[in-house]
Amino acid sequence: MSLQGKTAIITGSNSGIGLGVAWELARAGADVVLNSFTDRDEDHAIADDISRETGTKARYIKADMSKGAECRDLIAQAGACDVLINNAGIQHVAPIDDFPQDKWDAIIAINLTSAFHTTAAALPMMRAAGWGRVINIASAHGLTASPYKSAYVAAKHGIVGMTKTIALETAQEPITANAICPGYVLTPLVEAQIPDTMKEYNMSREQVIKDVMLTRQPSKEFATVEQLGGTAVFLCSDAATQITGTTLSVDGGWTAL
Ligand code: NAD
Asked: Which residue of 17, 129, 210, 235 has the smallest Cβ count within 10 Å?
């Protein structure tokens, strides 16, 4: 499977799943555009590493996915978009009657609304190129819920719904739109939830991982960023041409429960 000549834009990709997906797409031959809201030397250095290791072109473009104009500008600055991976995301955990409104607004903006703006800007480029893939990194929380994650669950269910609409609007074109729904993956986003959960349940780190996080993941293992990257590469393959408007769970059996 070669993605040579294709440009992939991955939002929120200076760490975690986005970075893992960028690496796998580059290993498959795609030129990748990395993104986050910072503009540090280390952000650009990640892109240089990918270019050096894979021989593809990798660039880093700063854009804040909580701002619609910057989402659209990211796509415009990239100049081409054959594969769009909507991945940027944040989390906040609190009971709904205590959920800070600024956190709700930020989660909806970054995890859901950004994908509306990037997709709107990218589809004309895909149509002009005659091929395209929209891949939204949703979550098991796009298909099921957990307490204290109202904004995240709402945003992830929302992006699953938007994925279906994009698929229907592009169904007769050489463009597909799908959502990947990971279970728990040990990334900085998940690491950040461990201390609060330890405090809340008065548990050790190991207990939180085993008895809280992986309790609904029957495999009892975290999914890896490489596995998610491989799933994205598959969705870009010819074999996946008729796969559109659906969700692909990478969750160790979570949603089979
Ligand atoms: P992460 O914190 O490692 O990565 C999140 C990325 O989003 C980072 O690159 C961060 O810089 C970027 N980001 C945050 N705010 C941004 C903004 N305003 N503008 C641009 N970029 C921004 O977390 P992750 O676990 O890799 O999460 C990536 C995606 O995967 C998220 O959408 C998350 O909801 C989803 N997900 C993660 C898991 C998991 O267990 N880790 C499970 C299911 C879904």
From this structure: 210
